[in-house]
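Page 47, continued from p. 46.
Same chain as before, 279 aa.
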Amino acid sequence: MQVQAAARAGLESGFADIDWTRPWFAQFAARGERWQRAALASYAALLAEMNADAGQMQQRTGRGERLAFIAQDDLPAGAAYEAHIAATGCVPTRHNLHDFFNGSMWFAFPRIKAALNARQSAAIDVLGVGPTRGGVRDTLTLFDENALLFACADPALSAALRGFDWQTLLVAQRDAWGVRCEVRSFGHALLEKLIVPFKACTGHAWIVDVPAEYFGWDAASRDACLDEAVSATLLDTDALTSRMFAPLPVLGIPGWWPENEAPAFYDDVSVFRAGRRAR
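Result:
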């Protein structure tokens, strides 16, 4: 009966709904499918699988602690989530999609996750945990929850993204995707929303300048490049603000949604909006 109850809980948590063929999930499929099977079996099985990978990979958190995953109930009362991770290396994890994808990012982009944790915990050290996070922590949280990594070797395409020039970026320069620019998923809340994709689903794109040869590298090398570049920026930039992101409707990314093959897909101004800010 306990086995059946655990399996039922896994199904109800939405783990069975992950479609690893979707472009936003596909980059994590190798590990994700294995974690998915564990999550469908039980909460304990998922934590065991995550910790086995953490032990093998010897990942580190923001202050160099060995990464591990613990049940949410093991977070001490009154402890701040990010500060606890930094101090102990232990990531409180619930049996749900949100934390499943959060855990995945510690392996896909370990340096970025460690940098986010280091900055968040440092801010908590200074300001404590109050009713508001403050500008820097808000930006770090936005990155962690909703970021897309926009790798680009063509400044004109980056300018089109910043300028809300959807016709240039997504229609006229469609052939540039995969050759001069591409997107990697990161935000775990965004991935959770994309279980059931909808046209208005929008990520916060973080633009990463990459060399032209980047697009000839294998996926692991490209991810390592992004991991190093973005983590360095997060650690070295004092004035982190939400204006460093550019909104990007996920289903508009060429190759990510069949309906966007028709140029008329982008005529929906409720989704592909004109810019409201000057850069």
